[in-house]
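question for whoever is on the cluster today: can someone run the full assembly for these? three chains, 627 residues total. i dont have access anymore since they changed the login thing
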Amino acid sequence: MNTDLDLLMEYLPFIIPIALLQFGLAIFSVIHIIRHPHYRFGNQVMWLLIVLFIQFIGPLIYFIAGRGDEDGHVH
Amino acid sequence: MSPWFGFLKKEWTESVKSYKLLLTILIFSVIGILNPFTAKITPALMENFMPEGTVLNLPEPTALDSWLQFYKNFPQMGLFIFILLFSTMMSKELEKGTLVILLTKGLRRSTVITAKFAMGFAYWTLAFLLTFIITYSYTAFYWDQTIVQHVFLAAGCVYVFGLLLFTITLWGNTYFASAYGGLLVTVVAVITLFIIAIFPDSATWNPLQLLTGPPQMLTGDVVPKEMLTPFLVAMGSLLVFLLGTILHFNKKRL
Amino acid sequence: MVMSINNVTKKFGGKEVLKNVSLTIPEHSIFGFVGANGAGKTTLMKCMLGLLPVTSGTIIIAGETVKFGQTKSNAHIGYLPDVPEFYPYYTAREYLELCAVITNMQKSELKQRIEELLELVGLSQTKSPIRTYSRGMKQRLGIAQALLNRPKLLICDEPTSALDPVGRAQILSILQAAKSETTVFFSTHILSDAEQICDRVAMLHEGTIIFEDELAALQQQVEHQYVFTFTISAEQALSQLRELEHHMYIEEDTLIVQLSSESERLLFMRELTDHNLVIQSMHPHTRLLEQVVLEVLK
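^ ran it for u. tokens below:
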């Protein structure tokens, strides 16, 4: 038990920033998906799941390939 | 503001609005943290996965392991994502025709290419510095870095190679006016370099050395002098591709 | 002459799209460039802008010969493409600022000029980015950017084609207003648009200019013919007037009569009164551009 805690403490300088970045990116992506409900393919639920459950790669795929065109027909 | 800076500002705004700045900062920070993290955690993981009772005598990770991770992740995952992010700089404009108005207003065609190149250059520098500085800081914090040699020079080699690949992508992207065109040209270029590398003699000049040489530089197996010719060849090819892009675009039908 | 096109030929592969086209545009006029879709109008315009190379011939704009690719002549031109494409994340004001910087406009002049143009095209109150714009708004922003650097020649490719009647009227009145400070060269396949604002008209048909003249000259009245409408239909009127010797025929429910002299006109009026025909309107017969075109094409 004690060693586990030591281990955690030792890795904390890595875990905290990674978790923050991961969490921030996921939240940001979720907000973007909800506010821009137009996608090159797929639907909202699919993108929400991808962004929330595939760490880093999910949001990356969304912003590179899935995000609707800027020119997207907003109306 | 001169037309050149005006167009550069437009490139900057575009990259921010299309989330390229955000993604670049995020991805390359993560890669920067992952390098020392992977180096540190690997022995612990190995112990966990081994059947019980196996006595493993894994050496403690060192600064070298952290930097080896850097040379594995940054040129592979990092460069790949970077090229992907910036592979549509020209094709997007050419497909949509957004340049027509600006060019018919008298914007120099070479300005378009050089400003886009400058923006890509700036982003690659940002990406490189982020990963490098973060990896460097962690490594310095956990380990003794005196055992690795030429840390800065070795990293610089990878940086130059990335710049060369970006320029090739820009050329392909302009020449074929499609996103896939740029990527395809880059893939073909990399494969060609690997084929050339089959011949042992080519190691003295092949720009691919800038990618494969740095880990050996850290241990002192490759001396910086050996990198000079590959570096010059890479810079030369970079200029040729940049000039080729400008010349081609000067006579492109829009 | 703000522009002269000399013997321009353009081939795409083996197909001749423009055949030996020559054209001159005088300053401060509105020049209508009409022709069916696919006649080669856009091709000629792209050649004028150096976006396409010509096969042979020369184009001179404001004293500067147009070269394919990087060309100095573009500094004198404002161009509105048929479908103008902007950067969707900019607002109209930001986009015009970019255009102003590109044309090396002085900072002191920049703000006022942009404000002036946004007012002219009716976009000064719009704060949203261009991606939310309608087709008509994009077209108006297109004109604003084209006029920005006070070009000597404003080239518009089908500026009205894709718009509804209101949008069309707006564009036409903006072009009319632009005439005071520049020369307007615009293409259209809608003849009535050309008729409304042009001073001169040229028609491109299958790659050649089939006529080019002042609009007034083209529309000159058909000599000694008058158009009548009555309270009854033109056909009924014609049947009542059948025994008269004047040359008469019916066109679109109006009666057109050849009356060569004042006395003949007076006489005809008298006849009408005798036949108890009440006139609703009477005016000299003019030919519409469309009829001119149809005649030429025959």
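summary bc i know u wont read the tokens: The interface with chain A takes residues 17-19, 22-23, 26-27, 29-30, 33-34, 36-37, 40-41, 44, 81, 84-85, 96, 138, 141 of chain B (CB under 8 Å). The mean pLDDT of chain B is 91.
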